[in-house]
Amino acid sequence: MINKKVENVTEALKGVSDNMTFMFGGFGLSGIPENAIAQLVKLNLKGLTCISNNAGVDDFGLGLLLQQKQIKKMVSSYVGENDEFERQMLSGELDVELIPQGTLAERCRAAQAGFPAIYTPAGYGTEVAEGKETREFDGKMHVLEYAFKADFAFIKAWKGDAAGNLIFKGTARNFNPNMCGAAKVTVVEVEELVPVGELDPNQIHIPGIFVQRIFKGAHFEKRIEQRTVRKRA
C-alpha cells in the first residue's frame, strides 16, 4: 500500500510557486482547507489563479490571500460576502470569472474523470455563453465548457487514512469530493488521520487513488459565515 501521509502542511505544499492555478474545496467557510490557505499566505506567493465556489470573507479563508494581493484571478460562483473582493474586482485589480454553481461543480468533476469538456444548458443566451461553442441536444441548446486545469487541489476532509481514503462530514462535503483528483496534485488536510484499514470501506466517500498527499491539520477554527440564532423568549 502506498503511504501518502506527510508530516505537516509545509511538506504537503512542496512544489507550489507563483502564477500557479489552485483549487480550494469548501462552500462559504464550511470545509475550507484552513491549514493550506494559512501556509500559502505565509509563503507570500503571487499571481495566483484560484478556483473556488467563493472567496471566503474579508478576514478568513481566501480573503486572507486577497488581503495580501496574492490572487490575480478568481474563478468562482458566489462572491457576495467579501468586501475586499468587491473592491478589487470593481477597481480592476482582480480578474474575475463568474460561473453558474452547477457548471463549476461539473467542470471540476470533468477534470477529475479525465473528460476534456462538458455540454451544459446553464448560461445559454447569457453573457456566460459569449464566445463559446453551443450545440443543440434534444431540442435544447447547450454551452461547451472546458474542464479545469489546475496545478494543486487543496481539500479538507473529516477523516482519512495514510492511503488517502477520505470521509467528509455533513455540509463540509460540498465541493471537496469533486475537486479530489481534478488537479495535478491533490493535497488533503484531515481532522483525524488513522492507519490503513481502520476506515469502514462502505463509508469512504473518496478512494485514495485521487489523493497524492494527506496530513493531519491543526487548529481548525471552523468559523460560521452567517450565524443565525433564535431570539430568547
From TrEMBL:
SMART domains referenced in this protein's UniProt entry, alphabetically: CoA_trans
Listed GO MF terms: transferase activity
InterPro entries xrefs: 3-oxoacid_CoA-transf_A, CoA_trans_fam_I, CoA_transf_BS, NagB/RpiA_transferase-like
Signal peptide from the UniProt entry: none
Keywords: Transferase
Family recorded in the similarity comment: Belongs to the 3-oxoacid CoA-transferase subunit A family.
Protein name: CoA transferase subunit A
